[in-house]
Specification:
Blueprint: E1 2-7, H1 8-18, E2 23-30, E3 33-38, E4 64-70, E5 76-78, E6 85-90, H2 92-106, H3 113-120, E7 122-127, E8 153-157, E9 161-166, H4 169-175, E10 179-181, H5 203-208, H6 212-215, H7 224-228, E11 235-242, E12 245-252, H8 273-292, H9 302-306, H10 313-323
Parallel strand pairs: 2-6, 6-7, 7-8
Antiparallel strand pairs: 1-9, 1-10, 2-3, 4-5, 4-12, 8-9, 11-12
The structure holds iron/sulfur cluster (2 copies).
């Protein structure tokens, strides 16, 4: 693995030079929060130790994505997006989330070619956290807040310079020209340790021996936790008629909404809140693990920081496992 040193002054020049060929998405200030946005000027980019309010998942899996247009004369036009993008300054937890999302969308029975193409056209540049933020529990999930290899190159703040670990050819293209340093002298590059917070039980036990009604009592079913979550990936197709043409969109959906699993017959297998909340927890901590080998929670803490009634997934998972001992 190759390490280079990039003086802080040089990062903006580098981004500036890349702006002609790439859309640069990076953390920028919006009101009191930090968000990932396409930048117009490199001076907008903020690389500090703040956590971004939302993850950058929407740049690979947009909240509303046009897929195709059905014209009046029977033609179907597939919507193409060839934008080359650099996702810059992405935290370890969000890189791990994109890794999980990549497995779900590109390694299962069905391939999402829209996601796959965006990922191919994207360069992922990671950036280490120095401190755990309020509500974060990435360490309990076995992640290293300061490093992840789920990207093309990873930046670590080192005073007046960044140490950049080059991981892929895409990373080499961006950073290969900077001065190389001895990897022994570079920062720690452990991807993480053992996850302490896991659900190790089977579905039948979890369905029957956990009081989901009590656990989900406070939840209002607003869906905020699913929209803000960097690993939540449920969607629904919507066909909309606009100016005489039918347009198919892929839109985020939420397992916390009552109609999420509603059948055409009117039957709803998850008719009550406790079944929907159980689904959210088990999807993250059991089903994605069974299907793709990952627990779909990075411990980013966003759902905890955003829930209007203070639901805390870390406490819920801890309570479930304590109760089943
Ligand atoms: S954000 Fe909180 S109240 Fe809203 S659906 Fe999620 S757990 Fe329930
Ligand atoms: S479930 Fe909550 S803590 Fe886990 S990845 Fe999603 S938003 Fe982050």
């Amino acid at each position: 693995m190759k390490h280079v040193v990039v003086p802080k002054d040089s990062i903006k020049d580098l981004l500036e030079s890349l702006m002609t060929d790439y859309k640069i998405v990076a953390p920028v200030r919006e009101g009191q929060t930090l968000v990932y946005k396409a930048v117009n000027q490199v001076d907008e980019v903020i690389l500090n130790d703040e956590a971004a309010y939302k993850s950058p998942k929407e740049f690979l899996f947009p909240q509303t994505e046009q897929m195709m247009v059905f014209s009046k004369d029977g033609d179907i036009r597939i919507t193409e997006d060839d934008t080359k993008t650099i996702l810059f300054g992405v935290r370890s937890c969000d890189l791990e989330a994109l890794k999980i999302m990549t497995a779900v969308f590109t390694q299962g029975k069905f391939i999402d070619t829209y996601f796959e193409k965006k990922l191919k056209n994207t360069v992922l540049i990671g950036f280490g956290c120095q401190s755990e933020k309020k509500g974060c529990f990435c360490g309990d999930r076995g992640l290293n807040k300061g490093y992840s290899e789920a990207c093309d190159a990873f930046l670590t703040d080192n005073g007046d310079q960044y140490i950049v670990q080059i991981i892929t050819e895409k990373g080499e293209l961006l950073f290969g020209g900077f001065a190389q340093i001895d990897s022994q002298k570079a920062v720690s590059c452990e991807s993480g340790g053992q996850a302490l917070l896991e659900i190790n039980s089977d579905e039948s036990t979890l369905f029957n021996n956990v009081d989901w009604g009590r656990i989900s009592e406070k939840c209002m079913g607003c869906g905020t936790c699913t929209y803000i979550c960097p690993t939540c990936h449920c969607f629904v197709f919507k066909d909309v008629v606009e100016k005489g043409e039918a347009i198919r969109y892929k839109c985020w959906d939420s397992c916390m909404y009552p109609k999420f699993t509603m059948h055409a017959s009117g039957h709803n297998p998850r008719a009550s809140k406790k079944e929907r909340y159980r689904q959210r927890i088990l999807h993250k901590y059991l089903y994605v693990k069974q299907n793709f080998g990952y627990t779909a929670c990075t411990g980013c803490g966003r759902c905890i920081r955003s829930c209007p009634v203070g639901m805390n997934i870390k406490s819920v998972v801890t309570e479930i496992m304590e109760g089943l001992k």
